[in-house]
Structure formats: C-alpha cells, structure tokens
Amino acid sequence: MRQDTIYDNSDILTSHGSVLQRKHALQIAEAGIKSVIPYESTKKYINLRGNNLTVGTLSFDLDNVDHIYVVGVGKGSYPIAQAIDDILGDHITEGFLVVKEGEKRTLPHIEVFESSHPFPDQRSVTGALRIKEILEKAGSNDIIFAAVTGGASALVNIPAGNITIDEMCETNRLLLRCGADIRQMNAVRKHLCNLKGGRVVQYGQPAFVITFTLDTNTPGMPWPDLCLPDPSTFQDAITVLNNHDLWDKVPASVRERLQDGVEHPEKETLKTLDGMKQALFSVGNQRVACAAAAQKAKELGYTPLILSSCIDGEAKDVGMVLAGITNEVISSNNPIPAPCALISGGETTITIVGKPESGGPNQECVFGFVNKLRSEEDVAFISIDTDGTDGPTDIAGGIVDGYTKEEMAKSSISFSEIFSKHGTSAALSKLNDAIYTGNTGTNVMNLRVVVIGKPSSCHDGDTIKKIEGREILNAKGMPTVEANIQTTKGYMATASVPCGTSQGSYEAKALYDGGRRYNGKGTRIAAGHVSNDINAILAGKQLADPASLDQLMIKLDGTADKSGLGANAILASSVAVAKASAMSKHIPLYKSLYRQDSYKIPDIIATVIAGGAFSVSAHALEFEDYLYVFSNFDSFDEELEALVTLRAHLQKKLTEQYGVIPEDGGALAAPLKSTEEAFKWMLQSVRECGYEGKVTLGLDVAASESYDKATQTYRFNKVFGRDELTDYYADLCKKYPLTYIEDAFHEDDIDGFAALRSRLPGVQNVGDDLFASNIARLREYHTVANGLLLKINQIGSVSEAITAAEFAQKHDMDVIVSLRSGETTDDFIADLAVAVNARQIKLGSPVRAERNVKYNRLLQIAEELGR
C-alpha cells in the first residue's frame, strides 16, 4: 500500500475533515516540491565524456584542469553535491559540504559537515572557514563547483570586525522576532559576515567558480548571495535595525561594524562580479514550484491561479488574506470560480514578543487562514516549508479546512493564545494537522495551496437518492444492521455488518435497543438512524469520494466511539456507499476502495480448532483459536484447496480418536488437553497431506479474556506472569513451527507486547484488541507489535479502516483483514483485503456460507488479476 510520497503522515492528515480537498491539497503541494528537488536538474547541466567536461554552455578539457573542488552549503545543497559527485567522481580533488544538523549523509568524494540552523553557533564558523580555505587554495587552472541553497545565512558565518558568533546569533534572534521580512533580515546579516555577498566567487578567484543554486532571480535572498552581488548597503542594514527598534538592542560590536562600513565604503559587500571567472545555474526556484503545483491542480480538475510566487509578510496576516480571497471565491466566484486552487510562494515571518512556544511561520499561517475562513465544507489549505522544517521545529507545516475551527473549540485551542504565544506546533499536533516530511532535499521558501470546491470529475458522477436501514440476523442468529442504498442513476447496493462475540475496550460501539427483544440486542434503533438521520445528510451527495461521506456521518454522530448513531449504523452505511461508488464508477470494488499500482491476493489464516470458551473440555485448551497459516502456494485456489483438505483430514483424525466433534463457526472443538496436543494433531495432518514448508501454525490467544487485573496475571490452564507467558510462547516457537501469535497479552499490557516483539522478532506478533483497528491506538503503540488485525466493525467506517491499514504498512507492519464471529453473507472484506494489499486474510474454515462467500469473492478477484 505504500505510496511514493514526501509525507510521513499523509494517512493521518487525510483521516478527518474535508478529506477530498485535503488529499488534493497535499498532492498539489507535493508536485510543487518534487519539481524543485535539484538532483536530476543538476545532472542535466553536467556532462562528462572522456576528458571533455561540459557544464551548460561551458566546456572544459580536463587535461588542462589541475584540480576540481566542490564546496556547498544549504538545506537543499546535498542533492546538488550528490549529482556532482556521481558524475565527476575521482576527478574531484577535495570537497566540503555544510548541511543542517541531523541531516548528515555521506558522499564518496565530498566531506559532509553538520552545522546549526536557524541560529548560528561555532560550527557555523568552522564550516565557513573550511570553505574559505578551499576557495583560497584554488589556482587559475582549477574549477570550483559551489552548491548553495537556503539556510546558508545560519549554516556558515565568518563574523566581521569584532563581532563574536554569540553576538551574531543574538542579532539573528532579534531579527527573527521583530517582524522584518527576509530581505530586510539579510541586508543586516550579509554586512556582519565576511563570506556572504558574493565572496565565495571572490575568494575562489582566479579559479572558475560554477554555482548551482535553487534561485537566481530574487535579490536580497539568503541564497545564492554567497555567489551573487549584494544590492543592499551598510546604510540599508542600519535603516532596518532602526525601523524595527533594534538599533539599541543589538550588541555594540554590531553597531560599530555597521557604522564603520558606512564610513569606509571599501568595506562594502560586492556590487558586481564583472571580470571574475564565474557562472551560475538555477536548478529550481519558487516559480517552478508554483507552476508544477498549478499543473497538478489542473490534472485533478481544479482551475489553478498562481497569486504570486513571492508573497512575504507576517505569517498570520498572509493566512488571513488568503482566507479573504477564499471567502470571495465562495461568495462571488471572484477572482475565479470554484473548483479552483489558489497557489502562492514566498517567505513569511513572525513577530515575537516575549518567550515563544514552539512553532513556525507556516504553522502560524494556517491558523491565520482558519481564523478568517467562513466556509465549512470543500475547502482545505496547506502551508509548507519546502525544505521540510518550518522554523526551529521538525514540522514541515500545517493543513487545515473548514472544520478545523470547530475541532479547535473541542480541544480548547484559542486563536488569541496561538497568536500571542506562537505555540502552533502543539496545537497542530493535537488536531492531527501537523505535516511531517523530513528533509525533502530542496529549499525554495514556502509553498501554499488553497483548494476550493470539488473538481468537475466529482460532479459528473452519481449521487445518493436514498439510503435505508433494516434489522437482519447474522450467522449466530442475532440482530445486526443492513443498509440499502439507491443512486440517482439506478444503482442499488446492500451492505450488512458483523458483530463480535467479545469486544475490546477500544472498539467503536454498536447501538442496541435494550429491552426484552433479543435479550436487549435488537438493532431497530440503529437501523432507524440509517433510514432517518444518515439518509438526511447523505441524500443528494456525490458518490465520488466515499471518505468525505464517512466524515459527515462521523461528525453527525458526535461521539468518540460512534455510540450516538451506533457504529453498526455508520458502518453499514459506509460499506453501502463504498459499494455504490464502485458501481457508479464501473470499476471493481477493490480498485475503487484504494488505487494501487498492482494488487495481490492475501494468504489465508484459518481457525481449525476452537479452544478457550469454545472448548468442550472445560477450558482444557487454554487459548481461543488454533490456526493454520498458509504461504508459498502458486495460486490462491491451490491455497484454498489445501485448507479444505487439511481441515477434512484433521476432522477425520479427531473424530476417529474422540467420536463426533462439535463445531463453532466451523472450528473443531475437540476435547484436547493442551496446546501442544492440538499442535501435534495439526502437524500430523500437515505432514500426511504433504504441505510441510507451506503451512505453519498460529494462535489467537485472546489474552484479555484471561487477564486478572488485580494480580496482573494470565489465568489459562495455569497462572502466568508476563515474563512466564513470554517464555511459554518462546518455548512453543522453539518446539513447533509457530509463526503467528495474535493478542498475546491484555490490550493494555503494552510492555508484554514489546517484550514479545523483541524476544521473537521473526514471529508475527499481531494486535487485535491492542489496536482495535483504531488509528489513535496505532499511532501510540505501533512499535510494540508487527501486525495489525483489521476488523472494520472495530473502527466503524471504511475510510478509517483503510487509514489504519495505510499507517500500519507505512510502519512496516503486516495487515491481516479478519471477519468476526457474528458474520453475515456480505463479502465486502474480501475486496478490502485486496484493496489494501493485506498480507493475510482470516476467514475461518470454509464450511459455512458467511465464510465461503468471502472465499468465493477472492477466487473471482484472483481470476480477474490472473493470480
């Protein structure tokens, strides 16, 4: 399921709010960022054939070149240097690259050095002096490649005059907090440093200096001014400090340096590079990023409008202005009608008073946007720093929509506190709206995208005419909910939902009637919610984006566990919507649920012996389910045939030994005395049927059912402490081909799961009650298990189940889609398992209709896929 995306948490960002618009805003911004990752564009400029080196229109005979040096600095400099290293290799005499702390990687011929950002420290001086040393050793027959991108203002510094690095850092802090724009800040910075303002080219003479950068057309920017003339003056720097009331606050050495520069014009930064041997190539800039974002918006069905690639200013104010334009689009179709995407670039800043909390300009910008946005539906806004770090945080930016203001109120987050304390990182994290990318490999300032409306493709499709609910019986003869949906184009879809015999504490809550009918388990109220409340909000809605309809139902429910409308009502409606959407698109359900480059049929896990509460021998069999785990078969039908063969063989052998064997859900409830006895019977069938090497053993322990909270022990055939139970599992794995253990510990025994994963890293350590298919539990505890048992009724909507699967796989966890004991003849989870490329599906023994209908659907899909 993993997608090639820059976002580390896209699943979380698109799990709530205006899902479609969020997805599209993220995709549009990603297209912009990827367009300016400079590795490939750098390689296009450089060509080496034999000893003939060409760089753009320049040509060099390496027989006449004594040395090639490479220097670089910036948050996006590594990909440029990597491209140079990949092409020139051993031709490089020496190289030195300064990158942001925490982003160090190695290059074969270029030393990579970590420095401080956004505030300089002594490493900034060390790195700058090393670059200067390399530049000054170059001779007239040498070539210097310079890779210079954003971040240089902090990463390298040679303090001028009597300024210390601490004084330079203090000045930088004052500038960052005063509200000055980036050009004003850099007018000061460049006059305090003896490396900036074109001096890389100057120090490199008489060698030929070739600069690769991410912009060439923005005077006063912090990049590539190491290699460009400086249009600002010492007097400009003094004016900036005076205008922002900083002149008396900066260190005395800074004032002395600037006053001395005004009095001695010869100390001014370079104003021209005329006569110097140099060339400069742009491998990306904010205009390219905005154009690529606009193209992606167009592909998605939006009319793009690039407002500007250089919008600067106070971050929250920029957000508010963008919200004002958005409100105008919605109310009057000006400057363009929806569906549209408003795209902008530039560098915003924050004016800070007092000691700030953690945050950054892009994060503050999105709160400014939300503060003034008037619409609720069909709007999303993303503001992101293209290098992946917004301010002094590891957050790249934020994404918000028309529902964010309401979510802020629920979480007691106030605009006044955010704008006064600037604690945007904590607020966005609480809202699940903080964007994480890590180092993107580029840096062209900020990119902002507002998505408004639904693209035309979403309006050309089918709509919901009505949806109705009814009470039906599941395979255990107990009530559940069925939803029937009709579309305006005449399609009809039916969905029914399962229920489990046992329910974990963290599962979504089905709604039951209470009273005497079915011992209180009637579902007429939940079915009524489908016909009335849910129908009222879904009728007339487009089917193109089922996830957004899930969000409408979740919002209407208004509870954390879906107990308002009932998880059974919401899930039945969610599955029915997903089916109808696939019908209206004329594509198979699994393809409609989640688009993959390729799909796989999951392997089978099947319960064949029932233990625990289902054992006829008074809990002599300690664990709940004993499983066959299948792999290494050439096709799904061969795997299914093997299951049928093995179960029949096992039933025959157990019947010969014990007489008639009762069943529960197709599993055999033989009067066995121990787990090891069960394993021996199971392995005998594997051997005699010829499936060794293709079928292993598994356990569904259901440990929460046997946990004594008072003593923190597990009461099976004997009492186990956590460590003893871990030892027991390890011993079973040593004696038998046990490769799968599900719910090995109580749902809150996190240390137990973690210990088992560490002890048995090669065994599938799967969480059922542990995770309850809930993204919040997964985010918190995904490191303690390596498998997710995905049950759609545990979470209560299709889109949330897919989000959970996506998160699990992104974090190297197996996904196992599972049925429940109280199943129906709905075959939806077969398509779901294929859609998310689940490793396995757990459907039980194929001897009952509610299970076989799912196996049969998998056979159909396998035939479609040629598997």
Average pLDDT number:
92
What is the alpha-carbon Rg in Å? 32 Å
Widest β-sheet, arrangement of strands: 21-22-25-29-30-31-32-33
Q: For this entry, what is the oligomeric state of its chains?
A: single chain
Task: Tally the beta strands.
Answer: 33
Task: Report the biggest beta sheet as strand number plus sense, adding barrel if it closes.
Answer: 8 strands, mixed, barrel
Q: Provide the CATH top-level class of the largest domain.
A: Alpha Beta
> Count of helical segments?
31
- What is the percent of helical residues? 25-40%
Write down the domain tally: 4
- Secondary structure category: alpha/beta
Within CATH, the superfamily of the largest domain carries the name Enolase-like C-terminal domain
At CATH level 2, the architecture of the largest domain is Alpha-Beta Barrel
**What are the low-pLDDT stretches, counting only 5+ consecutive residues below 50?**
216-223
Shape annotation: elongated
The rounded distance between the terminal residues' Cα atoms is 18 Å
Task: Characterise this structure.
By secondary structure, the chain is of the alpha/beta class. It is built from 31 helices and 33 strands. The chain folds into 4 domains: 175 residues, Glycerate kinase, MOFRL-like N-terminal domain (Rossmann fold, 3-Layer(aba) Sandwich), CATH 3.40.50.10180; 172 residues, MOFRL domain (glycerate kinase, domain 1); 126 residues, Enolase-like, domain 1; 189 residues, Enolase-like C-terminal domain (TIM Barrel). It is elongated, with a radius of gyration of 32 Å. About 1% of the residues have low confidence. An 8-stranded mixed barrel has the order 21-22-25-29-30-31-32-33, surrounded by 6 helices. It is 39% helix and 19% strand.
